[in-house]
Amino acid sequence: MNKHTIIGFVLTGAIAMALSGCGQKPASSGMTSQGSSGQNPVSSSEVPSTPKPEKTPTPTPVESKQPIQAHIKAYYGDEQATKLVEKEVTINYPEDKEKYTTALWTLKKAPADSKLVPLADALGFKSAVLKDKKLTLDITVSGEGRLGAPGEAMLLQAIQKTLFQFPEVDSIDILVDGKPVESLMGHMDLPHPMKRVK
Length: 198
Prior knowledge:
The chain is an alpha+beta fold. About 20% of the residues lie in helices and about 25% in strands. It has 3 helices and 7 strands. The longest helix is centred in the N-terminal third of the chain and has 20 residues, at about 5-20.
């Protein structure tokens, strides 16, 4: 072999070795074709989205009940407290079962700009329960504002007229602090119950 052929083989081998080594990446860098972390690359469809804040449930507003309004007749004494005077008044109450006590509270205060006398000053109306058309009324009687015999008679008449204007009431049983009594103020008999006159 001549000298030139040997040099040609050596150069061809060197070039072949150089070319075969070019396609490899150095293993010492720690880099792989999978990325720097060695984990599978995340595809675009798997990109973690920023966590959405949890929706706080909107509180449902509590419906405030509109008060019930009614026009009723209330009864007071005249200036001399010798006879009953009828007046139309407006009452507001939260629910139907409170209609009766609300109506009775109007007897404690005469209408503005009138010289009428409220007859129920001494009374406090605790509860009124209607069952089988009988209204059981529980009241308190204070020492102040008590009436004489004519005033007590008018007061009982005012209570009856006020409550019997409601057609569902056929009788009224008045209790004082939960107990039946013979008289409200010691002058007039108190029937148990008082019945509607038909």
